[in-house]
Task: structure prediction
Amino acid sequence: MKEQSAAGAEQHDLPAQVGQFARDHGQAADFPEHLSRLVLNLLAIRILGHSRVIASPAITAAIERHREVSEKVDLLDVLGLAPQITSDRMRRARGIASSFDDRIREELAHRGDPSVPQVAVSEQRDLIVNLLTGFESVWLTCLWSLLIMGHYPALGDWVRGDGMPGQRRKRLAAIIRETLRLYPPLPFIYREPIEDMDLPVGRVRKGEMICVSPYVVHRHHALWHDPEVFDCNRAAETYQGFPYMPFGLGARRCVGAAAGPELAIEILDGLLADHRPVASGEFPLPRGGMSLRPMGNPAISLERL
Ligand code: HEM
Result:
């Protein structure tokens, strides 16, 4: 009960918490890393705040550790697509990937928190995986948005507008929609047909792996007007349904499609209340792995207004 009200208070204080974060870490050389931890903590509070079952410090620590693991594994490593060019690194990465589930279960078994019997262990494991997925996506949405505003200060000024939070949030929503179009955090979605089927691209057999890339679809000249232009003035309908698919489409569409962007808006709103993003160097290229991260360590920080 005590824990519940603490979580409630944290939710309520989110803007203050984010503002404090901006003052404490806005200038850090590894700002993106700090930002990732902020997002993880806020997501744990937001999504799991209604139930104290999972959001124990042991579990958030477990998520952090698993994130470190997942960072070491990139897509080609996991799929092992090129056995002829296999390397120690790839072998290690495959080992890590296959032990991923075991380690989550291990953490759950050892966390020593018998407080909540209403969530089965199998469900706890799923919740952690879901949190991991969602956290990475929200973090990258915030990071790419800050990079875009940092590299194109006019856009940052436009977002700040008249300084009223209402306008800022509305404009941030537009920034996020376009960011998710050009930099969808999950650039590849995989499907495996349960029976042979005919698709516009040809016949696909049961069990074959199909990859749909929101990244490619979102930048396709046949589907978009000036796809490479970051344009916050696209019509609202543009973002409803195909070809806009940062959350996937259909039955397996992201369950956090509403909550994710909402949290990203809140975080960016808190960060930009008294700060402006400043970026240097070239705009980073995206690195397409399990998620769409910026290549290298992008130079981005927050400057007090
Ligand atoms: C901007 C933020 C987010 C983006 C861009 C995003 C994107 C995606 C995408 C592309 C998928 C795959 C959909 C498919 O296979 O068709 C997915 C699935 C999923 N996402 Fe998100 N996501 C975001 C935030 C979140 C959040 C906040 C949560 C929850 C805390 C979450 C939980 C999930 C879950 C559980 C699935 C699997 C759904 C299923 O397989 O049925 N996501 N997300």
Summary: The longest strand covers residues 275-279.
